[in-house]
Structure formats: C-alpha cells, structure tokens
Amino acid sequence: MREVGIGIAGFGVVGGGVLSILRKHAGDIEARLGARIVVRRIALRDPEKGRPLDVDRALLTTRLEDLVEDPEIAVVVELIGGVDQAFDLVRSALERGKHVVTANKALLAARGEEIFRLAREKGVDVYYEAAVCGGVPIIRTLREALASDRINALHGIVNGTTNFILTAMAERGEPIETALAEAQRLGYAEADPTLDVSGGDAAQKLCVLAQLAFGARIRPQDVLTEGIMSLKPEDFRWAREFGYALKLLAVARRTSSNGGPDQLEARVHPAFIPAGSLLAGVRGAMNAVVLQSEALGPSMLYGQGAGAMPTGSAVVSDIIDLTRNILAGSPGRVPLPPAKPLVGLRPHDEVRCAYYLHFSVQDAPGVLARIASQLAAHKISIAAVQQREQNDQGKPVPLVIVTHVAREADLRAAIALIDRDPTTLAPTRLIRIESA
Amino acid sequence: MREVGIGIAGFGVVGGGVLSILRKHAGDIEARLGARIVVRRIALRDPEKGRPLDVDRALLTTRLEDLVEDPEIAVVVELIGGVDQAFDLVRSALERGKHVVTANKALLAARGEEIFRLAREKGVDVYYEAAVCGGVPIIRTLREALASDRINALHGIVNGTTNFILTAMAERGEPIETALAEAQRLGYAEADPTLDVSGGDAAQKLCVLAQLAFGARIRPQDVLTEGIMSLKPEDFRWAREFGYALKLLAVARRTSSNGGPDQLEARVHPAFIPAGSLLAGVRGAMNAVVLQSEALGPSMLYGQGAGAMPTGSAVVSDIIDLTRNILAGSPGRVPLPPAKPLVGLRPHDEVRCAYYLHFSVQDAPGVLARIASQLAAHKISIAAVQQREQNDQGKPVPLVIVTHVAREADLRAAIALIDRDPTTLAPTRLIRIESA
C-alpha cells in the first residue's frame, strides 16, 4: 500500500485531536484512500511535557527544520499558532515543494498573500479548513461548492467564546463580567480573553473568509471592529422588546457604488438580528455562517468552531484531501484565493445600516425633539422610539431609537452633536441592526 | 485555452438554470479553471416547445444517443428525471468512459449500486450534488469534508413541499387541505403531490444520503415511511403545548445491537422536535440536514432544496469539479459510496423512539387507567398526559400521552389492543419524537 508521510508541528490540543483521529479512523481512511497516511515527525517545544496521548518518542523533535528537511514528509501540518515562527515554517515547507495544512487564521490573515503566492509558484497546495469555524466545512464550501456561484454577503458567528458569553447574557440576564468569568471557568475563554472579546479573532477569520468568498485582500486592521465588552444586560432586554437577538457578527457584504467597481464592507461588531432568524438560534459556543449568493440564495453552515476533535477532524479532512491530490498527481486542483484582489474595501464611513441608539438624557422638555431634529438634519430617519418611565428624579432617562438604514458617517456626526449637548448625560451607545 | 465539452440531457427548469449559470459566470469559471466549459449538445424531447432561454438551435437534439456518441463530450449531465430512460443514458455514457453529473435522486435510490459499480470499473466519476437538497452542499460534505469522521445520525428536512405545508399549518393553524392547495397555487407542490406528501421523495433522498454517510445500501421501499396527510391542526397545537415543532423528518441513525454489528434505522415520518432546535427554525420550502458525527459533533447545512438556480448551481459546481479532475488527470479522486454495504438495516420493529399518542376515547371512568395499564404491560413508560375538557357529552375526548423511549413493536402491540376496546372511538394516532 502506498504511503504518504506527514509531519506535524505543534502537539497541543488540536495536534492531539489530529493524531487521535488519524489513529482511530486509520482503517476507514486507508480503505477510502487506498493509501496509508504515516506520521513521520512531530515537532514540539518541550518533549518532556505531558502529552494528550502517547506517541513513539522517536517521532518527537524540538526542531521544526526536521519536518521540512525530511524527504519522506510530503505534507507539513502547522499547528504551532502565532504568526512569525509559523510563517517561517510554512515558507520553508512550501519552498521545498511540500504541501501545507494549517489551522492558523492569524497567519493567513496577516500573511496569506505571500503564502498563497509562494504555493502558486511552487505548484503545491495550502489547505486550511480548520482556520475558520473549526470543523464546519466553510472553507471547502467556498472553494468548491460555490465555485459556480457569486456570493453577495456573508454573516457569521465565528467566535464561540463571545457567542457563549452573549448567550448567557441573553438567557440569564447576566452582566458581561459574570458571563465572561463563567466562560473562563468552563474553558470557553482564555485567561486573557482580549483577542476574543475585542472582536479581533473574528476579524482575522473574516479576512480569511473574504479572501475566498469575494477575492478581497483585507487585513484585520482594515475591518471595522467593535467588541462586546460595552454591552449591557438592558441591551438584551431592548433587543427582545424590538424582536431581535443580540450577537457578535462578522459581516462582509458586496456593495456597488454608483456604477463604480464593487466594494466590500468588512466589519465585526455586536448586531441586532431578527429573533426568528437561524443565526439567532445559534447558542453557546457554536459557530455558523450564512451566505447570500446569487444562484443558491441564502444558505447556512453550522457546527462546533473549536475543540480538539472538531478542529482535528477539519485538519484530518484536509490531510486526506491533500493525500488524494498527491496520489492522483493533481496538486493545485482547487485554486487558492485569486492572486489579484477582485474587490476593494468600502470605507467605513460609507457603511449603511439600521441602528439601535441608546441615549441617556435628562428628563426635560424638548429633549426628544432636539435628538429627533439632529437625526433628521443628518438624513437619519426614525423607525421606532421608546422611552422608559423614570421614577428617580434627576437620574438619566433611557431613550431608545431604532433608525432606518443610514450612512455611518452621518450617524456618527449626529451622535457627536447630540453627545455634546448638556442634556445628554452619558455617551450614546449604538448597535447595528442586520437583517440576515 | 483548454476546452471541456459537456452534453446536457433535459432542458426544463434545472437545465435552464444550468445553462444560465454557465453563461453568466463563464468569465469567473474560466478564470478559476484555466479552461472553458463548452456545451456541445442539449438533448430534449420537443425542440419546438418554448424554452427557458435561447440557445443555438444547432446544439439541440432529440436523440440522447447524440450526447453519448459525441467524442467531444466528456461529461454527460442527466437532467431528464425518472428511472429507466435515465439509467440507460447514464449506463451508456459510463460505458463509453464519459463522466456523469446527475440531479436524479430516484435513479440513484433505485439503481445507484449498478451505476457506481460501472463507474468504478470504467474509472470515471459520478457527481450528484443536486440530487439531494438542491444547492445545499450535503453530498460534497459527506464525500469529502467528513471523510475523517464517523457519522452516527442524520436528521433532515429534505422535502421543501412538505415543509412549506407544515409551516403554514403551524403558523396559521390551517388544515392540510388548505395548506396543500396554497402550496400548489404558489408552485411549491405539483398537481399530483403524492410523491412529496407521502414521504416517498424524502425516502429516496434518505437512501442517497445513507449510501454516503453510512455505507448503507437501502432502497426507498426499505425505509419506514409515513406521510403528512393524516396530520391535524390540533397536532400542531399539542406540539406547541409540549414545547415541540412538527416537521417531516428523514432520519438515519446508527445503532449497535448487543455487541452485534451496527445497524441503521432508516425512516421518514412526521416528528416532534424541540421548539428551540435549529431544525425547528427551518421554515417554508427550505431544506436542512443535521449530522451527528464523532469528532465534529452536531453540524447543520441549510439552504434552498429546489428551484432552477439553487439546483442549477449544484449541477454547475459538479461540472466544475469534474472538469478539474479531467484537467488534472485525476478521475475517481473522491471515492464513490463503498462497493460493499458497511451496515445493515435495522428492522422497523426494533426502532426506539419516544412517542406522542393521540387517543379518542369515551369520557368514562377507568378509560385512562385502562390505557395506562396497557402501555405499562408493554413496557411503555409515560412522560406526560393531558386531557382536554370536553363540554359536548358523548363526543370523544382527546387524550394525549407522551411516552419515554419505547420499542416500536411494543408500542404497536399496545395500540392495537387499545384500539380494539369499545371505549376507544377512533384509531389512535402516533407521532414520533426526535431530540435532534
């Protein structure tokens, strides 16, 4: 039976999952492939540290070079994370004509362009299903299933940590500190949760998805990114009142600008979405991506976005796919993201959304009239207004306005003026409204 | 630029969708493939009939043989439907070494085994993404993305017509005749809706899915199949009362039987599912499939299951994939369903479910006690009971019992005895309860 040798860099949670799936399903995989996948080396930082499962110590090495230099290794599996060291490993693997599987969204978001260019030059493959939404086959669907279609919008819950926190806040009315602490206790959030709660992780994933779905070339810093730490329990109550759920969404949307070339909105932020929508039903640490495409219309993929086995299964599916290409002599079968960007980024000022606006104002005559006229002066039209009764004299009154679709820059300008008025007692908070 | 010739058999709704996608996205597809897909012949029954779009009349033929005999056609796209003629076409195409794309679930359910065997012998590919759930990439996901995983259960809403009808009944309290008539008026149901409302269409799709997901070899007549025509508006009210939604589900579930080999439950029937589940949120004519697999856990794919463009996009994605295989010289890259069945069918008597039972009984002392003791005698344990108040003396009282998980044969035996009793005024109706 033919053998295809692989080298695995990184032996943490995902590495353990990959090895255990390769072992457990070895028979099935061999039967399907007509070939054997053989792990030739595993590179890890500290060979003395406890491992998630037993392996032959002769396979272990602390030198990443050992993977790249081994002529029997055809596929390098990068699971070390981070950008710089991972990039060096991937680059030297590609330069030696090895195929690469990576689960590293940060790497692809920051240096995907160089990696894909090198892979094209060398005629080798880069597979990265596990980089976004763990085991959910979104990368494969974008690369292959929708090759015949044109995608116009993508809305995703792509960060399980924040969705877990927001689900707890929505269902139990908890403040974010409590929900975050619980997520940390249960292992859904890191000790330092910044990358997740800031939206940064979701922005990296959005960049990777937008490369494939739209041929866009954007970096995380180009994405309009707002995290979840400023959300309050009352935002969830208001969401319910207006018929919405509140989720952290990654959004990419193709827009046309007065007959000019298409542009792409790229943003990550908390969003009100219709309570009856499928995305609203995505609870806990689960992930989902909704695509709007021309021929297929709306479609959704849903599943576990993290964890040893879900992510490991995506990595192993990539290894199997690469092995098929190697056996068939057909690397480069499925194209990488396009070499030239097909669509530019839409300036954030030009984003158009409906908004939920939460004002903290004095309970005084004329306050609503002032706010309404400021909004009108900026061409922002009001869809709904609610003001809660307030018994404590002198305390700010919460006033909530839902707008129709407006231009982000106009809205920001109106809010800036409103917030400068002495009857506004705290900065106005906004949450965008998405129909997907 | 290299060209790959295709022949399309059948020029109805889907054929029109395929041609219009191939035209509209020709530039994109050529850029991605580095090759041109050229439609060389279109076979149709009546060349004088109005067509969904204009084509060069020189391409048209009424002879299916013209597609098979044309040496410039590498891929035959079968869109004529039905079993016998379609089988003859597919067989002669495969025998001549041509690849096949088909959207024909009936063909694959009835004669998939022969087709796949011939394709294996000839070293050519059969692609059939459009045969199940239109544009939803469930076939591709089962063939490729989950190649590393082991699927334990599949629950699908795979028939848009019945889901449209059940959604109308649930949301508007309509009797089934009204909902069906509306579905016919809107084009969601055929003039003769039997294949859809009987569950027969869903059973065909389940067979195709079970081949891939479990390596099962089952035919539609092997599937425990119940349609939707006996459902009443009150079933939806009871569903809501117990926290469920009511859907027509296709279910395949791997079960182990006392250390013996795994068996597969295969069934299509109306089912109560938790109201908060994602499948419960699948409305109208949409389709969705939930998979439970070992590594990935639960996952779902959702989208439009029918229509010219969704189905057409799946066919075109298959054509693109086949073209990639042809260009790379790698046919047979992704394996067909296994040649030997990997799992046998579980006898329907051994199916285990929880049940909703709807009794029509006399309002007389001892009736509940009698039913409860019949159930107990058959090892069926009761989870909930509700009896509605009844003002009209003499009319049957609706009594509803929700059971814990029980064996189908035990339940049937108990019901048969209960229905024989003179205090039972109408046959007891049952709806299975699924947790997915």
TrEMBL record, chains A, B:
Catalysed reactions, as listed in the record: L-homoserine + NADP(+) = L-aspartate 4-semialdehyde + NADPH + H(+)
Recorded metabolic or biological pathway in which this protein acts: Amino-acid biosynthesis; L-methionine biosynthesis via de novo pathway; L-homoserine from L-aspartate: step 3/3; Amino-acid biosynthesis; L-threonine biosynthesis; L-threonine from L-aspartate: step 3/5
EC nos: 1.1.1.3
Entry keyword NADP: yes
Keyword NADP: yes
Residue ranges occupied by any ACT domain in the UniProt entry: 356-432
CDD domains listed in its UniProt record: ACT_HSDH-Hom (cd04881)
Superkingdom, taxonomy of origin: Bacteria
Keywords linked to the UniProt accession: Amino-acid biosynthesis, Methionine biosynthesis, NADP, Oxidoreductase, Threonine biosynthesis
PROSITE patterns listed in its UniProt record: ACT (PS51671), HOMOSER_DHGENASE (PS01042)
Enzyme superclass (EC): oxidoreductase
Family designation: Belongs to the homoserine dehydrogenase family.
Cross-referenced NCBIfam families: PRK06349.1
PANTHER family linked: HOMOSERINE DEHYDROGENASE
UniProt name for this protein: Homoserine dehydrogenase
Source organism (scientific name): Anaeromyxobacter oryzae
